[in-house]
Amino acid sequence: EEAFQNERYKEELKIAKTVQQSLLPQKFEQDSDFEISAFSASADEVGGDYYDTSRINEHTVALIIADVSGKGTTAALHMSQMKGIFHSLAQSHLEPKEFMERANQALVYCLERGSFISASYFIVDTKEKKIRYSRAGHCPVLYFCMKENKVSYLKDKGAALGMIRSKDYCKFIETNEIKYSVGDVMVLYTDGITEAKSHANKNEEFGNERLADILNENKNLSAGEIDENIIKQLYAFSGSNKLNDDYTLMTIKFKG
Description:
5-stranded antiparallel sheet, 10 strands, 27% strand, 6 helices, globular
């Protein structure tokens, strides 16, 4: 009976991985103003990391990164719900705060108690050269500003989707805005990266500071090369291909 249950569980994980991989985009929206690169690797136990892009109009593109709580087929199912919500709401060209409010409202009916989804949603306006975004309990955005020659984390408030199951959610979310210029870089990631453990010391994590240092060292490279160098150093740090959590990274580099 136990062997049968184990086999059934393995089969479930295999299905969940297939579902998860099929939900991630094979290509991104293209634009002369920016380039996007992404990397995602699943842990043995399937998580629910999700990223995507959607073109709203000629000058506007929506981006999202999200992390579903939990593992296995349940996480993969919630990830598919998040994808549907993203593509449905993005086309309505909502303000990021309103996007999060509506997404939260929809997910309250989908998520069981105790489950939640952390997310960051962005609208890149290439005509106005600005990014409007909301952060719902997700990892802070890592941003390199060329004009200031400075790497920093954009720390803004925002509760995870499904955490507050009432209309009061609007009090816990906000829209933020930044102007971008040529050479700026935005790195989006899930906590599997910053919380990865060192192979030399299991109490040491990869951390925000190390991630920021790598971006600073590679800021002049392309989005794909920045991604590649972060992942290369991440695996060297953890010393293993066996993941405790999903590694998901999405890099946007602004160009002329």
